[in-house]
Amino acid sequence: MEFPEDLKYSKEHEWVLVEGNTATVGITDYAQDQLGDIVFVELPAIDDKVSKEDAFGVVESVKAVSDIYAPVSGKVLEINDDLPDNPEMLNEDPYGDGWIIKIEMNDPDELKDLMTATEYEEYVAEEKE
Amino acid sequence: MSDPTQKQAGLLLDEPLIFERSRPGRAGVSYPNSDKDPELILPAELLREPIAGFPEVSEPEVLRHFLRLSQWNYGTATTFYPLGSCTMKYNPVVNEVVARLDGFAGLHPLSPDDGAQGALEVILAVERILAEITGMDAVSLQPAAGAQGELTGMKMIRAYHVDRGDARRKVLIPASAHGTNPASAALCGYGTVQIEGNRIGLIEVDAVRRAMNREVAALMITNPNTLGLFEREIMQVAAVVHEQGGLVYLDGANLNALMGVAKPAHMGADVMQINLHKTFSTPHGGGGPGSGPVAVDALLEPYLPTPRVRRDANGLHWSSDFPKSIGRVRSFFGNFGMHVRALAYMLALGGDGLTQATQMAVLSANYIRRRLEGAYHLAFPATCMHECVFSDKGFEANGIKTLDIAKRLLDFGFYAPTIYFPLVVPGALMIEPTETESKETLDQFIAAMLEIAREAREEPDTLHQAPTHTPVGRLDEARAARRPVLRWQPVSPT
Predict the structure, then answer these.
(1) Domain range spanning residue A67?
(2) Per-residue confidence band for B10, with pLDDT thresholds at 50, 70 and 90
(3) What is the pLDDT of residues B450-484, one digit of tens each?
(4) In Å, how far is A37's CA from the nearest CA of chain B?
(5) CATH number of the domain within which A46 lies
(6) Optimal mutation site among A1, A11, A35, A39, interface B, most CBs of chain B within 10 A
(7) Shortest CA distance to B324 belongs to which of B493, B157, B436, B207?
């Protein structure tokens, strides 16, 4: 299971890549593994407002339907248009082609509430117990 | 244990699509050629061109085709059906006989009241028996399914609060709830607040107290919960909700574990739905239809859907004279055929019989739990009610997941239990045997589960390849959902 060092992680198993004031968001390798084969993705629209810890989208796997939560607040800058037709990208490349949205952050201070790769790896290990 | 699936292999008749059976010129019935030109004797709009790809098959082929497909059906009439949470009760044949009596089956829904007195008596009798079993004050049979019953209940809760000038905004829902609970609350305009269960799977009064305030319209709680565990603090929990002016919605999906033994009204419920297709043995699923009556206490009775059956000097009649009612939620009077079947079940068993059905359901579930808890991880080790929840924990080393266990059970001739629900248990495997299974059947199921646990440890590939003794093998569920093939396409002639 991968936990890239350059990302930040939420308790709801989203990852965040920070570049300036832009946060790219996806679900983690652990999340996709737990969900199983993902068959459907529902994305927000560009310019939608998202709030930290509120659901902004939905992923559906053969097992269950789950909300995707915003790790930070802001405005949706970009969405991954390829995902709805190719939801398997979330399973195959969760940190790359499987990115979900890019958010223009309101308050970069919110990033402080997220975990580092090491912290997240420990968090996942505890959740498995 | 030798491979018990072996002896079934010879009966696994594969069956192609009817289109694939087609051969040009073959027919079930040969009609004489017409001696008149059809265009001369039929109006033009009744004439059609030949239909491309229309199957051409003989009568025995048609008969075998549909009979074989019917034999692929699984239900309580063919096998043990331990689908947890769904309560796949055996549907007694007498229910079907009674529902087909001319007076019920032939009755027009627009018949005047004085021509439908017997049917109105049935509705009233079912309402009264449900009120007795739940301890509630009044019942409406209108909702056509459990989820619609929930929505009806939540609409009444909203109407009650709005009536008092205090609409409120939120509904508390345990993490283990059926997904329909938050959906029903949301449809009524409420935000939902999730209450986590404790380490033994139960809701604690302190957790509810922390979340409860004057913004909260109701708590929706399932008892026993979806883990098959009795919510021991339910009375204190209800008291906390009531103290702050909230109401308690009790999801009656698992009433079959309480019937005749404990009454939801005594636990503090103000409103609940009752799934006739679960607790009262009416049919389920695709065939159904379902039926989800709502029962309420005196506080909510004014808001019940209309029309309601009333009795006066002239007998029974429908009345809509209830000004606070939320109105009609279903055309006509709900799924009346299900009310007849449920009444047949209630009267056939009687009060003592219904109580015994509950006791046997709980006994069967606990028998399975005890026999399997050494071989499978029990999510919450405690005496259960009518169902028990295991998981795939402990099989990770061999790459065995719940889906593999479920698929392998098909090879042993058993319908698989509910899997991956409730969501609070990762890899859940939820077994609900119901009250009618013999000890021999339970033992056969247990033997299959124990053999599968052995295979999972010693020969995991057997599970990964399962099922192998079914008309089709392991299906690619993900591809089926991502790239569905929705219809047969003819192979173009070359």
Answers:
(1) 21-107
(2) low
(3) 999 999 999 999 999 999 988 889 988 888 888 88
(4) 6
(5) 2.40.50.100
(6) A39
(7) B157
